[in-house]
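Table S2 (continued). Query chain:
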Amino acid sequence: MTTPHKAGFVNIVGNPNVGKSTLMNDLVGERLSIITAKAQTTRHRIMGIVNTPEYQIVFSDTPGVLSPKYKLQQSMLDFSEGALTDADVLLYVTDVVEDPTKNAEFLAKVARETAPVLLVINKIDLVKNQADLEAIVDRWRALLPNAEIFPTSALEHFNVSNIMSRIVELLPDSPPYFGKDALTDKPARFFVTEIIREKILLNYDKEVPYSVEVIVEKFEEKDNAIHIMAVIYVERDSQKGIIIGRQGSRLKKVGTEARRDIETFFGKRVFLEMFVKVEPNWRNRDNKLRAFGYIE
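Corresponding output:
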């Protein structure tokens, strides 16, 4: 008798900066979500797909939960709350330094979940002794009594394989949802925009990176090379000047770093052209948020 095929959606939720993207990239084995030390780096739901002959896991990394200050952040919160409704398994990620009462309203929704909840307490490499870790685990157990708890260090790959094994056990019997060679539901150009946005987050300070959107206007792939033209949108003329830098020096640095990573991602030589345009107040304009893929 053959074992039935298993497939399901595993959605990763939690507050900003707790390591959701690092965990997903570790579980999927590919660098799909951008990882920086800054909050709000993930803006979309990003799916990473793991296939074996026996199962298919569709992981979904969501933006960090936060109180929205403008329409873009409301859209990001909608992505996270939507992840609660369509999960076969829910991974709630926190860490050892986070205040468990932060975003209590969202946590209460997680506590009411009917799908299995795996509570991942990340960054345990920062805890000095076992007693402190046990106190953190007890506090979370009181908040999410139905969750299975996994103390983890995604950065050091500690306990990640046990999380993966438990996910596979919890998957429902189902045919695959995507082709068995699929790695993600996102098109190639999406990852180009994410890589460029990551370099902007790493190279600029304060509000500038959060005012930026990147759109790939041209993606021409040939046998041994890819020609890409990308537009970086900002909200103000002053931000455009900051992004470009003196005699284009800062934009050139971002382009060099992004091109290197894009070449690694696709395994091909890349020609990357970037331009900067001003789109006033785009984060609060429905038509722009729709055009940039934040509103359906």
